[in-house]
Design a protein that fits this description.
Layout: H1 2-20, E1 28-32, E2 35-39, H2 41-97, H3 100-109, H4 117-131, H5 134-145, H6 151-164, H7 168-181, H8 186-199, H9 202-214, H10 220-252, H11 256-259, H12 262-274, H13 278-291, H14 310-322, H15 327-339, H16 343-356, H17 360-372, H18 376-392
Antiparallel strand pairs: 1-2
Helix pairs in contact: 1-2, 2-3, 2-4, 3-4, 4-5, 4-6, 6-7, 6-8, 7-8, 8-9, 9-10, 10-12, 12-13, 14-15, 15-16, 16-17, 17-18
């Protein structure tokens, strides 16, 4: 637009000057080498204006041609990009459907024309993982690593595949490196949980659980399950390495809150029994039962191999007086009476327990106590009641 206005201004000035000096045009002599050219000033002005107009027109034609060429090139490029994106989207759908071969074919076909080839190669690696083709998986991961940026996406994909292949040691080493850089990354936290479980790193899992719960990556039910699994795992490690002494030392350093947790007490007692620490197990159990007569802990008394059950009997008799309607106390006491061959006392204890609730095991114990007292008819009736309970199940 500026050029056109400029030309019109020049033409206007030329016409004005030509009209003004029409009677005094003068002349212009141009000499170049052996050539000379003569013309009037008006002719020169018209020639200059015409030359400028021709140059402007040539510039317009050239730019228009280049613009058309560039538009054509862009049209083909955009067309390829759209097709690459469409194939990538279709590949993702194939991957979600479990069509690994179809997914690989779709995303790799036009990956070079995609504006984010990294995505195509990562999807292809996942497809190769699904097919179990490790060579292709590594090939696509290598191509993904050659792309600019998004190194975390590549690392996370590799680690997820390692975990799925149960390569926990390799995954763990890389996750520990990432954990410091991305402490709140939920995917990293979830993968750490899986590697800790796979490698049985119970202390690390125990430390991780609060973060998993805070990030709402596990439910309350799963949290408690993993928490007690970690406690058991740590106890097993200590017991295997240091025996009873190590378990007792571990117990002494536990927080008071955990020592009052029935599940933790049960786990410790079971580990002590496993390592022949029955006397030590009874002391811990006795102290726990003095705090509260937990129905979860009471049956453990019968699993402890005590040289003398009399102290345990006295403790349970005292608990029976405090809680006469607790069937678990009566049942446990009855089993200890059977060990001491106190048949009448055992009979009374089991009858008291069965009065509160039905139990196949207690009916069986009661029948045994009656048999030893030559009360065969009563023992037979009790046995039939036990059988009827089994039939109902």
């Amino acid at each position: 637009m500026f050029r056109i206005v400029f030309i019109f201004i020049v033409l206007g000035l030329g016409l004005f000057a030509g009209t003004l000096f029409s009677d005094q045009q003068g002349y212009v002599l141009i000499s170049f080498a052996n050539t000379t050219t003569e013309m009037s000033v008006t002719t020169l002005v018209i020639f200059v204006v015409a030359t400028l107009a021709a140059l402007f027109l040539l510039e317009f034609v050239i730019k228009r041609g280049l613009r058309a060429t560039n538009a054509t090139w862009n049209w083909f490029s955009v067309r390829k990009l759209k097709r690459a994106r469409r194939y990538a989207n279709e590949g993702i759908i194939k991957l979600l459907e479990g069509d690994w071969k179809g997914a690989e074919k779709k995303v790799t076909r036009w990956a070079n024309h995609h504006d984010m080839p990294l995505l195509c190669y990562l999807i292809a690696s996942e497809a190769a993982q699904g097919m179990g083709d490790n060579a292709k998986r590594e090939k696509y991961l290598a191509l993904a690593e050659q792309q600019d940026g998004f190194s975390l996406a590549v690392e996370m994909t590799k680690i997820r595949q390692m975990v799925r292949n149960q390569q926990y040691a390799d995954a763990h080493s890389q996750l520990e490196h990432l954990k410091g850089r991305y402490p709140n990354n939920t995917i990293i936290l979830n993968l750490l949980k899986k590697t800790y479980l796979g490698l049985e790193l119970w202390s690390a899992l125990d430390e991780l659980l609060p973060r998993l719960k805070k990030a709402k990556l596990i439910s309350d039910e799963e949290y408690h399950h993993l928490f007690y699994q970690a406690q058991l795992g740590k106890m097993k490690e200590v017991g295997a390495q240091q025996g009873v002494e190590g378990l007792l030392s571990y117990w002494s350093h536990l927080p008071k809150k955990l020592k009052q947790d029935d599940n933790v007490v049960q786990l410790m007692i079971e580990q002590l029994i496993l390592h022949n620490g029955d006397s030590e197990a009874y002391i811990i159990l006795r102290d726990a039962l003095k705090q509260t007569a937990s129905n979860k802990l009471l049956p453990l008394i019968t699993q402890i191999d005590l040289p003398d059950v009399h102290p345990a009997v006295l403790m349970l008799e005292g608990l029976t007086k405090k809680q006469p309607n607790n069937p678990e106390i009566s049942s446990t006491l009855g089993q200890l009476y059977l060990r001491e061959q106190k048949w009448p006392e055992a009979q009374k204890a089991f009858e008291n327990a069965l009065h509160q609730r039905a139990s196949i095991a207690d009916y069986s114990y009661l029948a045994d106590a009656l048999e030893h007292q030559n009360m065969k008819q009563a023992a037979g009736e009790v046995s039939r009641k036990a059988l009827s309970l089994i039939d109902k199940k």
